[in-house]
Amino acid sequence: MIPRLGINIDHVATLRQARGEDYPSVVDAAQVSLLNGADQITIHLREDRRHIQDTDVETVRLVTKRFGKPLNLEMGVNPEIVEIAIASGPEWICLVPEKRQEKTTEGGLDLLDDANFIRIEEAVKKLKSSIKDVKISLFLEAKIEVLIRATQLNIDAVEIHTGEYARVFSNGDDIGRFIEQYKAAKEFLTNNKIATHAGHGLTDESVVPLLEHKIFEEYNIGHWIICHALFNGLSNTIKSLKSVFDSHPLK
Ligand SMILES: CC(=O)[C@@H](O)[C@H](O)COP(=O)(O)O
Ligand SMILES: NCC(=O)COP(=O)(O)O
């Protein structure tokens, strides 16, 4: 089994929104990704709509349905966004934390805060009861005390936030402690019948040790792919990343 590669196309929308034009097209980005080996498309509908817009959710959804591939909708626990998710009916929803001033998602959800935990629990219940067969993941740090709380929720997967790992890797520093943490998280989650995904800040190089250790079933990668595609093309970038995945089967 080959780990799945989800392509996050938010960063195409970031470029579009920077000038308020109707290009580059996220629909084209989704199509090219799926034609070249993406296993799913990931988009993050932020509350501040800084990149993906409500209409993008609808148009990208049509593309993923046409290709018969999953849409993974990332979202904060916000009642308005929950309604949009219900109307769109994605196969996967990844609940993530959001801060207005952050440049990008800075960490995982805080499940140790009781009020926050209850908000997330209610959102999970509402999404599961409103969208047939939807699967839900939580974007979390690989900390056992957080993962223990995650097992109290009706979720299908945890997506481990790999942002700090990716930074340490790119500085050329020791990544050993992350690998150990991720292995422990994987073992704990597997014992609790929860799948283990990864994402944030990963590149064609930083993903390799994670693939070698066979830790994650799914990776969601966006920023590096879209940046690399500027000079190498989106099709070539995805094909060559996909070949790295293909040479690292899970079993
Ligand atoms: C949750 C997450 O990691 C992704 O949404 C990724 O960060 C791309 O979105 P932003 O650039 O808006 O953070
Ligand atoms: N959930 C992580 C994701 O979708 C992609 O993150 P990034 O590669 O854009 O940092």
What does this entry look like structurally?
It is built from eleven helices and eight strands. Helix 2 runs parallel beside helix 3, helix 4 runs parallel beside helix 5 and helix 10 (223-232) packs across helix 11 (234-246). It has an eight-stranded parallel β-barrel with strand order 1-2-3-4-5-6-7-8, surrounded by eight helices. Strand 5 (135-140), helix 6 (144-150) and strand 6 form a beta-alpha-beta unit. With 251 residues, it is of the alpha/beta class. It has helices at residues 10-19, 26-35, 54-67, 79-88, 114-130, 144-150, 163-170, 176-191, 207-212, 223-232, 234-246, and strands at residues 4-8, 40-44, 71-75, 92-95, 135-140, 157-161, 195-199, 218-221.
Distance between the terminal alpha carbons, to the nearest Å? 6 Å
- Tell me the strand order in the biggest sheet: 1-2-3-4-5-6-7-8
How helical, in percent, are the residues?
40-55%
Structural class: alpha/beta
Bound molecules: 1-deoxy-D-xylulose-5-phosphate, the ligand NCC(=O)COP(=O)(O)O
CATH structural fold name: TIM Barrel
Mean pLDDT: 97
Second CATH tier, the architecture: Alpha-Beta Barrel
Oligomeric composition of the shown chains: single chain
Keywords: Cytoplasm, Pyridoxine biosynthesis, Transferase
Main location: cytoplasm
GO molecular function, one term: pyridoxine 5'-phosphate synthase activity
Subcellular location: Cytoplasm
